[in-house]
Fold this sequence. Notes:
Helix content is about 15%, strand content about 40%. By secondary structure, the chain is of the alpha+beta class. The protein has two domains: about 55-70 and about 165-370, Thrombin, subunit H (Beta Barrel); about 80-155, Pdz3 Domain (Roll).
Amino acid sequence: MRKLDNKSKKIRVLKSLVLSITFVFTMCSWNKAYRYDKIPQSDSVKADVVRKEKKVYVGGEPLGIKVNTKGLLVIGVADIETEEGLKASPAIKAGIQIGDNILKVQNNEVKCSEEMSKVINNNKGNKIIIEFQHKGKNYKKVLTPVKSKLDDKYKVGMWVRDSSSGIGTLTFYDDETHRYGALGHGISDGDTGTMINVGDGKIMPSEIIAVKKSVEGTPGELRGIFSNGKEPLGNVKTNNICGIFGEYSGKVNLKKKFKEPMPIAYQNEIKEGKAYIYTTINGNAPKLYEIEIEKTIHQEEPNSKSMLIKVTDKRLLEQTGGIVQGMSGSPIIQNDKLIGAVTHVLVNKPNKGYGIYIEWMMKECEFLQNY
């Protein structure tokens, strides 16, 4: 009987140990998965992170956007037709790929394709040094240009682009820092799909003159005009997954509906249900249109697809078919707070799309310090 009692005690001790280990593991997992906007507390002490209210001016106006690439963006590579036949592209042989950025030729910075072509052709087939950036790393390679049969000019077998321009929408402007955020997603090159590495750029006043309506399978677009001769509204300092950002030198449009700064909302404040987008589909005066937030996505890192939205406003559906290109950056408002911006359209369901949380755009603009 004594031996049996000892064995029973050992079993009870082991069971207690297993329960203790399981409890500790469960608590660790729970803490790791806890919502980022709250501090895990014991039952006796509970507290939320106190965030200072931030107010910004709501955008909604169309922007003309022009950005110059950092160096020259490689958009194509190919072999060259010469008098001796087809010769392999010197650029390909040097390891240059589509999406790379040409920074220097013969140790001199190049800012336009014509400048690079002139340097290469004037070198008359002698070896040249090209510095380029590939996936964030810089490389230097020696290339030997070959003479093209088509135009008797020396070439290295690549096509480059030095700038990109288009229409987008201003999301917000901060009067304290004189900075702005727009688009809600980055500017990518249309041929390569790569995010453009911006050297510099500017935003300009724009006016919407026509709308191509979205239909199932084919996204529509806002068609606007802007002039390089007009005074810029600001510069473009940053282009990333959350949009474009820079210094804003324009004046606040006091003719708009929202004449005073509006508080922003964090993702834990956003509710599924009724909301509004503030966008411009004619001229340069934005209007409010009703939407439905169908789903919010808990995120701990910046992402341009934060919430699924659906256009419900009959006026907007009749004129645009839903979300169209050029609306990117249009502010999303709920309960008198700026909660995000329109970013994407669903190609096969153009009345639906995605929006980004405004906190990600604010973070990228370095307004919020305590993340």
